[in-house]
Amino acid sequence: MRGRQTAGVPKSLRSGGTAMRNPALSRRDFARTCLREGQLHMIWATRRVQDDEVQSIADLFRDQVEAFDPAGQMLLLSLNEAWPMVRLWVALPDEELLGPYYGFAVCPRAELPLAPTLIAGNVARFQRLFQDA
Fold this sequence. Notes:
- By secondary structure, the chain is an alpha+beta fold.
- It is 33% helix and 23% strand.
- It has 2 domains: 2-36, no CATH class; 43-131, Alpha-Beta Plaits (2-Layer Sandwich).
- The protein has a 5-stranded antiparallel sheet.
- Residues 1-21 are annotated as: Disordered.
């Protein structure tokens, strides 16, 4: 039963704690419990894309948020470069979710720009990270 309860949940969310001791938790409750227990950390990745590619990446991101981010931690950020190029950053709770983001490379949090634009994700989290700093 435990395997069925965690099917489709990234490995970092299956790493033990209260959530693993209670196999009756839903995927959403499971992720919230892991977040409360401090088991969730964010993976940052970046890629330079053309302006016309941003919408399809944003659509993918929103689908993942709906499935894997009940706590509102995931972010999709941008910074305009020389037109038509845009630099994107994505914050994900698990590197396994990075697969669909073709061409994105993991980067440290320190490499994020000081004033990016939020494309999708939790506005309050974005403000805490970039406007309150």
